[in-house]
From TrEMBL:
Membrane spanning residue stretches: 12-31, 43-65, 71-92
Keywords linked to the UniProt accession: Membrane, Transmembrane, Transmembrane helix
Top-rank taxon: Bacteria
Protein name: Na+/H+ antiporter subunit G
InterPro entries: PhaG_MnhG_YufB
Record Pfam families: PhaG_MnhG_YufB
An example molecular function term from Gene Ontology annotations: sodium:proton antiporter activity
Protein species of origin: Aquincola agrisoli
């Protein structure tokens, strides 16, 4: 196995640790935040940024290992960045409609004219 120079190993290690810390922060955000709407945005941002860090570490490592650009790892965070906002929007709309229907069911009946 070829040993990589330190100037490649250190950024890869820092990016992997940063990505892990961001993913952990996103998971803890899911546990700590109480309301669905509070949970919706911050953990998604932390986990998406964490996936970008891990992907960049993968690109650096395998590009240095193979002595050519290896950009296939960018596909995962690009697709995640495209689909995460759409998924968040659909989940927020569904939750809003469920809350509205639940509030309407609990509201007292108003007699008509």
């Amino acid at each position: 196995m070829n040993a990589l120079p330190w100037w490649i190993e250190w950024p890869v290690a820092v990016l992997l640790v940063t990505g892990g810390v961001l993913a952990l922060a996103g998971a803890l955000g899911l546990l700590r935040l109480q309301d669905f709407f509070d949970r919706l945005h911050p953990p998604a941002l932390a986990i998406t940024l964490g996936s970008w860090c891990v992907s960049l570490a993968s690109v650096l490592y395998f590009s240095a290992l193979e002595s050519r650009p290896v950009l296939a790892a960018w596909l995962i965070p690009i697709l995640l960045s495209i689909t995460a906002p759409i998924t968040s929007l659909l989940l927020a709309r569904a939750a809003r409609f469920r809350r509205r229907d639940a509030d309407a069911a609990r509201a007292p009946m108003v007699p008509g004219p």
